[in-house]
Write a structure and sequence with these properties.
two-stranded antiparallel ribbon, rod-shaped, mainly beta, 36 strands, 34-stranded mixed sheet, 15% helix
Length: 622
C-alpha cells in the first residue's frame, strides 16, 4: 500500500511539475509546424507559412495550449509578409482525440509596405474595402496586430480584429485630394474601420483629426469623423476644390483661416460622395473677394474688393441646405466696419439676418436725399428671405443714425428685382440739405396711404414730369396710393402745404393721378394723369414756376412766372406743350439778347439789372 501511495505521489508530483513547467517556461518544438501550416493553407491554398520552432505554453484551467513563434513569413504569389510573432491556441481535447484544431490565431507584423499587404490579403479576401484602399493608397508603412478565430471546420470567423498604426502614407482620391505624410492609429473589424490620432498633409495643407470611422452599409461606405487645422492659407487651386462648390458666386482672392469640423458622408462604389454633412467652427483671419455688387450709389467710397477679418462663424451643411452664423470686421470703404450675419438655406429657401455697423464711413440714399455723417456711427438691421423662384422678401429693414430712423417692412422683389409688394415705410430723418423729413407709408385693404407732416421732395417734380417710359422702373405694383402730407419742400425757398391726392399705378406706370398743393398767397400746384385705352394725358399747372424751372440747370436767372405743361401720348408717340407766363430771365443766352434789341423796354430791363421780362414762352416737342 505504501508503494502504491509513493507511486501515485510521484506521478502527481511529476504531473504537477510538468504542468508547472509547461505553464510557465513552456516547451520548444517543431512537432506542430506541419499542422499549423496546413491550417493556414485552408485559408488559401496559395499561402505558404514558414515557421521556425514554436514554443508551447499550457493553460491548464482552459485545457488549451498556447503556441508562439517569432520570425515567421507568409508567402503567396503576390509577395511576402514578415511576421514579428505568431500566437495560436490549440484545444487539448482535439489534440488528445488526434484532431488538431487551432481556435485562435494572433499575428503581429513587422513594418510592412501597405500596398504589398493589401495585395497579399486580396489574394484570399477580395472585399470592396480592400479594392478601394488599394486604388487610393500610393505608398506608406504599417505595423499591425491581427486576431483571428476559427470555427470547428477550420474557417475564419467574421469577428476578426486588425489594429495597428500607419506611418508616412500617401493617398490620392478623385485626382483632387492628395494626402501626404499621413500617420494614424487604426482598428478594423468586420464592416467597421476606425481611425484615431490622424495627422496628414492634404494638398500641402496640414490637418489633424481625433477620430474617423468608415462603416460598410450594403453597397456603400458611411464615413464620419472630425478634422481640424490651425491657420492655413488657401491658394487658388485649393479655393476651387474646397470653397467654390459651396460658394460658387464668390470670386475669392485670399483665404486665411483655421477651423474645427465634424463631417459625415456616404461613398458609393463609384467613389462618388453622397449625403455630405459638415458642422464647423471657423475663425477667418483674412478673406478677400471681388466686389461684384452694384452698391456704388449707396457706398460712394466702395472698393473693388471686400475684405473680412477676425470673423468667427459656425457652419452647418447638409446636402443643399446650410446655415451660417458669424460676426467680425468688414473692410470695403476707407474705414473698417463690423457685421453680424445669420444665413439659413432649407428646401431652396434662403433666410438671412444681418446687423451692419458702419463706423466713420459714408452712406447715401439718393432717392430720399439722405446722406450719413461720415464721422457718425450707423446701424442697419436687415431680415429677409429668398425663395426658389428668386423672389426676395425684406421682412424688415431698420436704419438708425443718432436720431435718424428709416424703417421698411415686408418689401418684396420679384426675380427681376422689381418691387411687387410693400406694406410699411417710416421715415424720420434730417437729409443732406438739413431739412427734417417725417413721413409714413402703409398698406390697408390693397391701397396705400402716404401721410406725414414734412417731406423734402427735391426730386419729386423730376419724377412726375419724366415721360421716359424706357427708363428703368422698379415699382411694379398695381394699386392706388392716397397722399396727404402737411408740407412738401420743393427747394430751400419754395414749399407746398396741404399736398394731397391720389395716384393709380398699373403695369409699372402712373395710370391715373390727381395731386394738388398750396403755395403761399393762394397759389396752387395741380398735377393730373388720365389714361383712356392707348391715350395718356399728363398735365401740370404751377402758379410758382421757379422751383420747377430751376430743376433744369442750363436755365440761369429765372424768376417769377407760372407754368402750364400738357402732354399726350398715343401708343409710342407723345406730343407735349410747355407754356411759361410772366417771367424774367437775368442771365440770357446770346439769341435772347439779340431779340431784346427790338424792344426799348427790354434794353431798359437789362440795364436796370432786373432781367428781361417775358409775357409768354411756349415750346412744343414730341
Amino acid at each position: 500500500m505504501k508503494i502504491i501511495s509513493k507511486i501515485l505521489l510521484i506521478i502527481i508530483l511529476f504531473i504537477f511539475i510538468s504542468v508547472t513547467y509547461l505553464s510557465t517556461i513552456g516547451l520548444e518544438t517543431d512537432r506542430f509546424n506541419d499542422q499549423i501550416e496546413n491550417r493556414i493553407k485552408k485559408i488559401d491554398k496559395n499561402i505558404q507559412l514558414e515557421l521556425k520552432k514554436i514554443k508551447l505554453v499550457l493553460e491548464p484551467f482552459k485545457l488549451k495550449l498556447n503556441v508562439k513563434t517569432i520570425g515567421s513569413k507568409l508567402k503567396n504569389q503576390n509577395g511576402t509578409i514578415e511576421i514579428e510573432s505568431l500566437n495560436a491556441q490549440i484545444s487539448l481535447k482535439t489534440l488528445i482525440e488526434k484532431k488538431f484544431s487551432v481556435e485562435n490565431l494572433d499575428v503581429s507584423t513587422r513594418s510592412l509596405e501597405i500596398k504589398n499587404l493589401i495585395s497579399f490579403i486580396r489574394s484570399f479576401q477580395n472585399i470592396p474595402e480592400l479594392f478601394f484602399l488599394e486604388k487610393i493608397i500610393k505608398k506608406g508603412y504599417l505595423i499591425a496586430d491581427i486576431k483571428l478565430e476559427f470555427d470547428s471546420f477550420g474557417k475564419i470567423k467574421d469577428n476578426y480584429i486588425i489594429n495597428g498604426f500607419i506611418k508616412d502614407t500617401e493617398l490620392k482620391i478623385l485626382k483632387k485630394y492628395h494626402f501626404k505624410k499621413t500617420n494614424l492609429i487604426f482598428d478594423y473589424k468586420k464592416n467597421n474601420f476606425d481611425l484615431s490620432d490622424i495627422a496628414t498633409e492634404l494638398n500641402n495643407l496640414n490637418f489633424f483629426s481625433d477620430n474617423m470611422s468608415i462603416k460598410k452599409n450594403k453597397k456603400n461606405f458611411f464615413v464620419k469623423g472630425t478634422i481640424n487645422h490651425k491657420m492655413i492659407n488657401f491658394n487658388k487651386k485649393n479655393l476651387d476644390i474646397f470653397v467654390k462648390p459651396f460658394l460658387p458666386d464668390f470670386e475669392i482672392e485670399k483665404l486665411l483661416f483655421s477651423s474645427k469640423n465634424n463631417f459625415s458622408f456616404n461613398l458609393n462604389q463609384g467613389l462618388k460622395f453622397e449625403n455630405f454633412k459638415v458642422s464647423s467652427d471657423i475663425s477667418i483671419d483674412k478673406l478677400i473677394f471681388i466686389n461684384n455688387f452694384n452698391f456704388k450709389k449707396f457706398f460712394p467710397k466702395i472698393k473693388k474688393t471686400i475684405s473680412l477679418s477676425e470673423n468667427k462663424l459656425s457652419l452647418l451643411f447638409k446636402k443643399n441646405d446650410f446655415s451660417i452664423n458669424g460676426k467680425g470686421k468688414i473692410f470695403f470703404q476707407n474705414k473698417i466696419d463690423s457685421v453680424n450675419y445669420n444665413l439659413k438655406k432649407k428646401n431652396k429657401v434662403l433666410n438671412f439676418e444681418t446687423l451692419f455697423k458702419i463706423n466713420n464711413n459714408p452712406l447715401k440714399i439718393n432717392l430720399l436725399n439722405y446722406e450719413k455723417n461720415e464721422n457718425s456711427n450707423l446701424d442697419i438691421i436687415l431680415k429677409g428671405s429668398k425663395d426658389k423662384d428668386n423672389k426676395i422678401l425684406i421682412s424688415s429693414f431698420d436704419l438708425k443714425e443718432n436720431e435718424n430712423k428709416i424703417e421698411i417692412k415686408d418689401l418684396t422683389f420679384n426675380k427681376n428685382l422689381e418691387i411687387v409688394e410693400l406694406k410699411h415705410v417710416y421715415l424720420d430723418y434730417i437729409d443732406k440739405e438739413s431739412q427734417k423729413n417725417l413721413i409714413e407709408l402703409n398698406k390697408k385693404n390693397d391701397e396705400y396711404y402716404l401721410v406725414g407732416s414734412l417731406f423734402n421732395a427735391n426730386n419729386l417734380i423730376d419724377i412726375l414730369l419724366s415721360n421716359d417710359d424706357n427708363r428703368p422702373n422698379t415699382f411694379n405694383i398695381n394699386s392706388k396710393m392716397n397722399i396727404n402730407v402737411d408740407k412738401i419742400l420743393l427747394d430751400n425757398e419754395y414749399y407746398l402745404t396741404n399736398f394731397s391726392g391720389e395716384i393709380f399705378f398699373k403695369d409699372k406706370k402712373i395710370f391715373k393721378s390727381k395731386l394738388v398743393g398750396d403755395f403761399p398767397s393762394n397759389k396752387k400746384l395741380k398735377f393730373t394723369v388720365n389714361t383712356n385705352d392707348n391715350n395718356k394725358i399728363t398735365t401740370l399747372f404751377v402758379d410758382e414756376a421757379v422751383p420747377i424751372v430751376r430743376q433744369y440747370k442750363f436755365i440761369k436767372g429765372f424768376d417769377e412766372g407760372s407754368l402750364d405743361f400738357y402732354s399726350t401720348k398715343n401708343s409710342n408717340e407723345s406730343v407735349s406743350k410747355l407754356r411759361i407766363y410772366n417771367f424774367k430771365l437775368k442771365e440770357l443766352p446770346v439769341l435772347t439778347k439779340i431779340l431784346t434789341l427790338a424792344s426799348l423796354q427790354g434794353i431798359a430791363d437789362i440795364l436796370s439789372g432786373e432781367g428781361i421780362r417775358f409775357d409768354e414762352f411756349e415750346m412744343n416737342f414730341k
